[in-house]
Amino acid sequence: MSTENEGAAVPSAAGPQGSPAPQDAERPARANPPAEPAESPAAPAAPAPPAAAPAVAPDGGTAQMPAVPPAPPAGAGAQQQGAPAAPQAPAGGPWYNAAGAPRQPYGAPAYGDASGNGPLVPLASWGAPEPPRRRRGGLVAAVLAAALVAGAAGGGIGYWAADRSDTSSTTVSASGDPKLASRTPGSVADIAGKALPSVVTIEAQSSGGEGGTGTGFVYDTQGHILTNNHVVASAADGGKLSVTFSDGKQYDAEVIGRAQGYDVAVIKLKNPSGAKLNPLPLGDSDKAAVGDATVAIGAPFGLSGTVTTGIVSAKKRPVASSDGGGSNASYMSALQTDASINPGNSGGPLLNAQGAVIGINSAIQSANNGGGLPGAQGQSGSIGLGFAIPINQAKNVAEQLIRTGKPVYPVIEATVNMRDAGGGARIVSNGSGGSPAVTPGGPADKAGLKPGDVIVKLGDTKVDSGPTLISEIWTHKPGTKVSVTYIRDGKQKTTEITLGERTGDK
């Protein structure tokens, strides 16, 4: 059903860094978007590059190390040599960008980047302590042993105290960290604890009995759940949908509306009575910055309530993805993250360090090396290249679907080549079925564009291919005026175009 369940590789446009173009059908596709499956990108012959990463819809953090505790005064008492060290308190500490936590320098990147930036700083790794050397003073030996054990623990010890009421011995004890009881505000544990009750696992089943598992999250108090189209597509026509919350309660659901091109869908609980409907707060995806911390929640390979962390690796990454079943592709100008996303994570929230949703996890770049769990053979797993639909765009689509049940797309009404990449989006000579490549009276025609023109820029965004052009057009609303830079007869020109409108998926 879903890409996350199918695990098929999907075509996408080559990105600004010169990614290979998707291997599409010989016919060009419309930038309206493509009107039929044959015009959608097909499976790439080779792994896609960073800029226009082909994707398969799935479908770190530092602790501050405490200083070694100080030794008590020499006159505090004595302890027998060889006395056992005091027990340790559990390790802990604030997340690297938790509220009030000091900034930490980045460590070495976890993976290279065509998109990526440095990852979170890994936890410090402390080696095994040396055994304490024997000394004449029992007190010194006891304190030294305790200090070494604290160092090996690597954190989480609030303070050490020496009981000096008994001059014949010294008792060393560790106190628990009071922060562990309620978790530090802004820590991963705090974010996950608040978000998990609002994240659901979705089971979709077609009328023929086929289906799969995905994720969604509570959108409002009326029982609407936001997810990916490819998660629920198999159950859209006469199938069955069920939603399970983190407390184990299960509810039947129905599709309210879905947008195949955006890969966004809204479903609703049929009987939300008794359901704890606490909508997740929505952030501003436009304000997300490369390097910002991310938290992804979902049900990878059916493992509900799985939490992973990472950073925003890149923004405005043009991605084309499909469910692996031959349907039309979806296009997005995605947020890229290295938080682990696998089949089953689709439709789940990508959260920022404040616990607000900045994206819907939708696709991954895969090495096609198969899944790692029983029953997951043939499914691709995370290699640290995940893509999420920016929540600002997803919110607009969700509101359209709730109001009318149908999506609305901005269009330029010109057919562009979806196969070539690297030089821009070329308007072809003839459209699909012999129709004009530039619709007479349409937005592109009114802007003066003609067959053979190569669009190289839309607004401030460089365009290297047809899929990149579509994903960028779809970040705008119908009626928006944007500048278009194109090349004709070797000369670069600029014009302004007012985006048209198309309702529904073709």
UniProtKB/TrEMBL annotation:
Region span, Disordered: 1-100, 166-185, 429-450
Membrane-spanning residues: 139-162
Pfam families given in the database record: PDZ_2, Trypsin_2
Protein's UniProt keywords contain Endoplasmic reticulum: no
Coiled coil: none
Residues annotated as signal peptide: none
Domain PDZ: residue ranges: 421-490
Low complexity bias locations: 7-23, 30-43, 53-66, 74-94
UniProt keyword Nucleus present: no
Alphabetized UniProt keyword annotations: Hydrolase, Membrane, Protease, Transmembrane, Transmembrane helix
Name used for this protein in its record: PDZ domain-containing protein
Lineage: Bacteria, Bacillati, Actinomycetota, Actinomycetes, Kitasatosporales
